[in-house]
Amino acid sequence: MDKLIKTISASGYFRAYVLDSTQTVKEAQEKHQTLASSTVALGRTLIATQILAANQKGDSKITVKVIGDSSFGHVISVADTKGHVKGYIQNKGIDIKKTATGEVIVGPLMGNGHFVVITDYGIGKPYTSTTPLITGEIGEDFAYYLTESEQTPSAVGLNVLLDENDQVKVAGGFMLQVLPGAPEEAIARYEKRIQEMPAISSLLASKNHIEALLEAIYGEEAFKRLSEDTLAFQCDCSKERFQNALATLDKKELQAMKDEDHGAEIICQFCGTVYTFNEEELETIINDKS
Ligand SMILES: [Zn+2]
């Protein structure tokens, strides 16, 4: 079971989230049949969305859109405050690796563009905030968003490791934030530790990456675990929802679906579930419109 652990330094000036998102990204890969680079880009976006959603309360929803101008197209994911996230990548068939190391390439395939965060508090009028992509690697773009848009100095590390068959082996990451009033020398101490921290991929590769991440973030400093929440890839689509969407179409269009196509098939872009509507069901929708 995936989890997100919230912690705070004993001093109260630093807080960190650490995550295991392995099952979430595995599920996303299975549902969308993504190839290596697409898997990593989608996975990193899902992790960033999980972190942002963990910051929300009540019935809020967070949508992250990473909109690039290169091969991937856009990556979109949505998370609620109960640990559920769903998402997809526009071009799921990208698989480009460095010849020498086999490292999966992400940034250049995202290109230039924007990191868009939409917060929906469930009371209408969602709040949208946009920052430019810095490297297209998503982790850095996300850290820049947090620092610029939310005015909270933040360090982020997130990644997806694949096995030799390009299947998800481990996924996760961390977010460290400086809280108001933190003394300069303490900030310098944390900064130094983050700079000297082993690469996020090697931390994720360790046996218990949650503990490895916490140790890398806090070093010898005392901290408290505040909570542990479960995370999962879960889509909220349903036949009823798509039926309502069909009902918004023109009567003529619906009639054509019935008479010419003898039914309709809708695929949820977030999870790949296929919903079919036969002629009778279309007839009911048409009749309900009048
Ligand atoms: Zn769905």
Q: Brief overview, please?
A:
Pfam families: HSP33. Redox regulated molecular chaperone. Protects both thermally unfolding and oxidatively damaged proteins from irreversible aggregation. Plays an important role in the bacterial defense system toward oxidative stress. By secondary structure, the chain is of the alpha+beta class.
Please describe the structure with a list of short key phrases separated by commas or semicolons.
290 residues, alpha+beta, 10-stranded mixed β-sheet
Please give a structural write-up.
Redox regulated molecular chaperone. Protects both thermally unfolding and oxidatively damaged proteins from irreversible aggregation. Plays an important role in the bacterial defense system toward oxidative stress. This is 33 kDa chaperonin. With 290 residues, this protein is an alpha+beta fold. Helices cover 35% and strands 31% of the residues. The protein has 10 helices and 12 strands. It has helices at residues 22-32, 36-54, 107-110, 139-149, 184-196, 200-204, 209-218, 239-247, 251-259, 279-289, and strands at residues 2-9, 14-20, 61-68, 74-80, 84-89, 113-120, 127-132, 154-162, 168-178, 223-233, 264-267, 274-277. Strands 7-6-3-4-5-10-1-2-9-8 form a 10-stranded mixed beta sheet, with helices on both faces. Strands 11-12 form a two-stranded antiparallel sheet. Strand 11 and strand 12 form a beta hairpin. Helix 1 crosses helix 2 and helix 9 packs antiparallel against helix 10. The longest helix is centred in the N-terminal third of the chain and has 19 residues, at 36-54. The chain is globular, with a radius of gyration of 21 Å. The model has no long low-confidence stretch (mean pLDDT 95). The structure holds zinc ion (ZN). The site of zinc ion (ZN) has 6 residues, from loops.
